[in-house]
Amino acid sequence: MTTIATGTDTLTRDALTVLQPGFTGTTAPDWLLRRLGEGLSSVGLFGRNIASPEQLAALTAQLRAEREDVLVAIDEEGGDVTRLEVRTGSSFPGNHALGAVDDVELTQAVARELGRRLAECGVNFNWAPSADVNSNPGNPVIGVRSFGASTDLVARHTAAYVTGLQSAGVAACTKHFPGHGDTAVDSHHAMPRIDVGAEVLQERELAPFRAAIAAGSKAVMSAHILVPALDPELPATLSRRVLTDLLRGELGYEGLIVTDGMEMRAIADNYGIRRGSVLAIAAGADAICVGGGLADDETVTGLRDALVAAVRSGELPEERLADAADRVRALARWTAAAAGPPGTDGTDGDADPVVGLRAARRALRVTAAEGFTPLTDPPYVAALTPVANIAVGDETPWGVAAELCRLLPGTRTGSFAGEGAGRAALREAGTRRVVAVVRDEHRHPWMAAAVDTLLAARPDTVIVEMGVPQAPPRGALHIATHGAARVCGRAAAEIITGE
Q1: Which of 157, 176, 180, 188 is catalytic?
Q2: Tens of pLDDT, residues 331-386
Q3: Is the pTM of this model over 0.90?
Q4: Confidence at residue 140, expressed as pLDDT on a 0 to 100 scale
Q5: Does the annotation count 189 as an active-site position?
Q6: Of the listed 231, 260, 345, 440, which one is catalytic?
Q7: From 425's CA, which of 21, 326, 354, 396 has a CA 20 to 30 Å away?
Q8: Is 440 a known active-site residue?
Q9: Residue 404, class by beta-carbon neighbours within 10 Å (0-12 exposed, 13-18 middle, 19+ buried)?
């Protein structure tokens, strides 16, 4: 029998408090404002909710008019995963580019400026950074979202990012605990599994999270992954052994534990989002992230009622739900205090609007053949385009075409994929010089074959690798950008044209 929660009793308010839902549109719908009045404490924003900084500021003001201490969360990693600049590409390179530079002061400055821009728009909680060690170069979902494959490098840059972001008054949410780097499956689609021993996990996966905790990360996000060395039956998000015994107990973490999106198929297909949410809170999670795909009042009320019913049936201890809600409220108090007086953005330094471009330029790895000269005539840009993973999405433009058009007016471009992509690109290019843009060439045999075809016919082809640079450099000029953000494309275009 379904238990329907009504009114604003303590149990119902606590159940609403632990939810972090999304919604559609660029203004808050009536149902969301009503739930904020009833106890909902957090709202998640996605690219669909953002049209401009001014609109975003108006939206967050609308939310705060209903609940002054609301946590406004966003998935803004910078680099390939951007919501602030979802339609233009990010002004900041992502983690892999920052790791390639390996300057922790630069990483901290980039995170501070990103946080300043979020705070300026009224966003106070960021589901970032990724602390995953990208030890599996074939990883389909992490890749350039990771600082790199070295545990020590990832740990020090994770700590720097947390420090920089939180110096702007925006709470960091370090993810994806206990580490999503050594996976070959995307948890948006199925349940990944990491089959390594406890010693490897301690030395590799957990080290960046220890660094984030030491840096004071206000939140940690769980991963929907099965790690048999920690729990042979339940994925991390639903595992008391992982969230309570390991994260809380062994690592001594006291902040907020947030789940990854509960509608991701690793959870939804195996447990359902309502059952999964009850299990997650019981395991030690404090907040349920949902709203990337499900973004309506029915989702919120269904999760609320499932939590209330679980308490009333004795499946979920009421004190566990109350503790989770208290942790959410504690984070809301921190963000309110960190924001500073009205009209300020909470930062402890001046704005640095070009720090992202400086970082992108420093991240380039350039290999030029003897005798290469910069392009002076408009080329043909052949984008060899893989299917985007869900975290990145397919709304955000990438590549170098837009920046080359700015520097060399008349530049043309096309997108190609699959068998025959190289031959098709050559036909479209005609007599123009070819600039081939790839993303993780090492992961896509069709892409490597297309590059082979282009180079066989046009040895003067320029190659721009905007993914994880695992394939050997080739072409008249090879540029590894370590990410596909707009600023990475601009930095590459400057090299191609000699700017």
Answers
A1: 188
A2: 999 999 988 654 455 555 689 999 999 999 999 999 999 989 999 999 999 999 98
A3: yes
A4: 76
A5: no
A6: 260
A7: 396
A8: no
A9: buried
